[in-house]
Amino acid sequence: MKLYKFAIALALGALSATSCTNLDENLYDQVGSENYYNTRNDVVRAVFRPFEHGYWSIQSRHVLNELSADQLITPSRDGWWDDGGLWRRYHYHTWTNEEGTIESEWNGCYQGIMQANYVIDDLETLSASQFGFSTAEFNNLKAQCRTLRAWFYIRLLDSFRNVPLAVSKDVNLNSKGQVEPVEIFNFVESELKECVELLATKTSTGGNDLQQAQWNKAGAAALLVRLYLNAQTWIGTDRYADCATWAQRILNGEFGSYSLADTWDASFDWDNEKCPEVIFAFPAAQGYTFWHYQGDTYWWSTPSQFRYYIGDQKAEAGDHNCKYACTPSYDLSGNLYNYTLGNTVQKFRNYPEDVRLKLYRNTGDSRREGLFIFGKLPSVKEGEEFVTDPYGNYELDIRDAVGHFAGLAEGEWPEDKTSNLQSGDHNSGYHFAKYPFYADDEQGQLESDYVEIRLAEVIYSLAEAKFRQGQKDEAAKLLNSVRKRNYPSSSWTTTLYAPEGNASLTEQELLDEWGREFFAESRRRTDLIRFGKFNSEAWWDKNVDADSHTAIFPIPRKALDTNHNLVQNPGY
Hints:
The protein is mainly alpha-helical. It has helices at residues 3-12, 33-36, 40-56, 58-67, 86-92, 100-124, 135-159, 181-198, 217-229, 231-235, 240-251, 307-310, 344-349, 455-468, 472-483, 492-495, 507-517, 524-530, 557-562, and strands spanning 72-73, 278-282, 325-326, 361-362, 368-369, 372-373, 431-432, 450-454.
């Protein structure tokens, strides 16, 4: 247990265990704000309460941005995970405005925005001196909530595009219906630019340490990079030059000292508060909250009996499950698919010495290696040599394909060549471990903080901006600065992009590289849309869409029923 997280958990309050699952919550209906703020700690608790809600809300974004894209799937497995076609609708882009996850994303963002609005408005009525804050400290607290609010609005722009603008707890100051996307964009841009001036600068050369989960200048600047990178998609205006400018300012150290970690997984490991690559992360700890170790995020990216391989049988997050797997690279005759998109693991195999291709395993003392979970997994369960399906009917031999493999030896392929989301078993599709799954006796179990922004995103955003501005060699060098850690130096001649190596950087390769570096980080849909591929390309068990209306999600039915000023998004 990292002791500092106990203090952060206290600042966030004990409400997280119950309130975040109640989408009808009203956090201020019992205690009036005029009676709440009595001490310095009351102010701190109020400021950081919306942050816990923000952390909880990452689950819906993960589902929407990954299962609708080309890298992750939820196939049925011997009757598991069909759920009335729910997950197929995301894969096929046939969702409706009745989907619970779409509603959760809308509600989660607006609840977070209104929580932040309450605090921002309240702090405007208070003075710094009465609670023992300096003016700079007090402005920083307000800017933290403003930056978090901007983060929520970026998500709404990405998912729904046409949304209301709520800037106060006074509803008369908020828009009654939707505003143009450019108005949301301009509001977010203005807020973040102001907050960059008000937030603190990271002073350490290592990780965030005690400042983990606090927005600082670099965090707000990185959100501007994210905003500008997607401006062409969100408002129809090219802002790649601004993206490059702000990214370069971060890399120059203007907002604090950040550097790439030596290994790809350090940003996700249990002590990532010490990682110099992490710009902003939500803290997690056993006994408190760990929303990224939940069903709708990474705890269910494994076989259901994974605990018998890894030894985390008593972990607080409960049993594992097999919700997420990689889109297959092979058909059921053992031939590689020729889709431009998808073929998730094969995109890693294009550079066969990639260290991430190793089988995931714990190496002891809360360290790991490998990203993917595949093949036969040795079992610690008494009487079993290898991990089995949930019922113990057959040993798992996890393949990079989707079909019925039970009872087949390695190298054998099923007679039934049907491969789609309804034809899988528990051997279908590589699983993965983006965040580590440590055993019960390892101190790192459930201690990894959830990383929202890391320096690699800033570097890749700058590379894409330069690529689109015709500066291909500069883009390649930026990407290589990150990619080097994924391959042994002896292979750099073949693995690095020209001019530093022999690999060719094309637009498709740039998209592939985004997919490798940020695999399963809740952004793949966003990247596909920005590259013009989300609706116009096919991938495994997914045809080209008839039109592009699913590039944004529908306004949830309950939102329309509640606010008659809202208008449904086009095409729904």
